[in-house]
Amino acid sequence: MEAAALILFAVSLGLASIARRQQRKLVALESSLASRDEAIRHLRAQLQTARNEQAETAALSSAIANVSFDSVMVLDEDLKLVVCKEPAVNFCKVKECIGESLPELIDSPDLLELVELTLREDEGLEEHFIVDEQHYRARTRMLHSGQRRFVSLAIQDISELVSLNRSRRDLVANISHELRTPITRIRLIIDSLFLDADKPKRKASIQSLKEIAMETDALLWLAQELLDLSMIESGQQILRMVPMPLKQVVDEASERFEAQAEMKDLTIISHVPAKLGALCDADQLKRALGNLIHNAIKWSPAHDAITITAAEQPDEIIVSVFDNGPGVSDELRERIFERFYQGDSSRSGDEGTGLGLAICKHIVEAHGGRIWAEGNSQGRGGRFSLTLLKADAELLPAAVDDGELPEQEPEIFAAG
Fold first, then answer.
1. φ/ψ (deg, to 5) at 403
2. Could you give the strand order of the β-sheet that contains 81-84, starting from the edge strand earlier in sequence?
3. N or C: at which end does the chain have fewer Cβ atoms within 10 angstroms?
4. Are β-strands 126-131 and 134-145 bridged in parallel, bridged antiparallel, or unpaired?
5. Interval 384-406 mean pLDDT
């Protein structure tokens, strides 16, 4: 019994010793695992730092690639500056700008809205803004690195360019004004010569006067286009939107070109319902329709017809001008509305300024409509269409005895 007790005691001591050794090994293993976890966390932190630096470097490299801009900076999603090209420091209100938010650096709500919109839309944008009476152009671009997003912001001082553009607009306006006065006087003198009492007796003189009158009209048209361009670019054009009978506007626009149409023995045919009304600025709409009619007269073959139609839609009116000229090729349908663009100089004889259709587009879009040309693949001839907002028939003014419409209080919209 005593021997058995001794053996059991010895076994217990051995097991206790083994348990202590296992406990020490377990403690050492836990310590090793803790050290490894700490090392892993440290490596992950270093990796994230490296990724952030790489993203910022890529953002800066991408931003600086746009060398046409003076100042370049990169902002994070909190609108804090993380990278700044040296010239941009002079643009900011504070010199130590890294880590500062955009509103604290640049006092411009427009610029702040541009950057915030870039983050919301996740796409690059471009905008013009003013700070301390200086004009700037800003361009943004989204940059992605993993889950992080950055905004590249490039800023260019365009104050001198704006000043030059303003001078150019003033020059165009002055030239058009100086042209209009003598041309109008010449036209009045020529018109007086056509009076029966003062009409020259020789047919040759009559023909010469007609040619002079035609060239004077061309100069007057050019002066008007220059003036319109100046008004459009300066944003000074104003629309007075009132309900108007569309037929009256179309007829008045057509009457201005009866003499020109007569020279080519052209007939202007109007198919516009008398009760159809449009919400428009009558003077500006007549200008747009006049450009389309003038264009149709220019390209129509002699002894032909120009047709104007109007179709009523649920919320708008589609007005179309048709002629039997060469029409517009499909590939030029968009380009012909660009300023100063002329389709085929070999056929046009370099006539015109290339402004008429561009002015049409501006006027129609200012009315909330759209304008387009149908290509030759859709049929022969020139076909231009535009849309206008439809006015309720009960809002149309009633005609008075002298054929004119009574004065209405207009709704005014800026068209610039």
1. 85, -5
2. 81-84, 71-76, 148-157, 134-145, 126-131
3. N
4. antiparallel
5. 69
For the chain, what are the domain ranges?
A: 60-157, 160-236, 237-414
Asked if residues 116 and 123 have their Cβ atoms less than 8 Å apart, the reply is no
31-40, 200-209, 267-276, 293-302 — which is least confidently predicted? 200-209
Strands (E), 18-102: 71-76, 81-84
Give the pair of three-digit tokens for residue 276. Answer: 């159809």
Counting every residue written for the chain, the total comes to 416
Fold held by 237-414: Heat Shock Protein 90 (3.30.565)
Can you tell me the distance from the alpha carbon of 131 to that of 111, in angstroms, rounded to the nearest whole number? 10
Tokens of 18: 């083994």
- What radius of gyration do the chain's Cα atoms show? 38
CB neighbours of 278 closer than 8 A, spacing ≥ 6? 243, 244, 246, 249, 285, 317, 388, 389, 390, 391
Say yes or no: domain 60-157 is CATH 1.10.150.120. no
> Does this chain's domain 60-157 share its CATH topology with 160-236?
no
At residue 356, φ and ψ (nearest 5 deg) are -55, -50
Give residue for tokens 């300066």. 234
Rounded CA separation 314/317 (Å): 8
Question: Is 145 in contact with 55 (CB distance < 8 Å)?
Answer: yes
Tens of pLDDT, residue by residue over 285-340, are 998 999 899 889 988 999 999 999 999 988 899 999 999 988 888 888 888 887 66
Q: Tokens 């005895």 label which residue?
A: 401
Encoded amino acid at 414, one letter: A
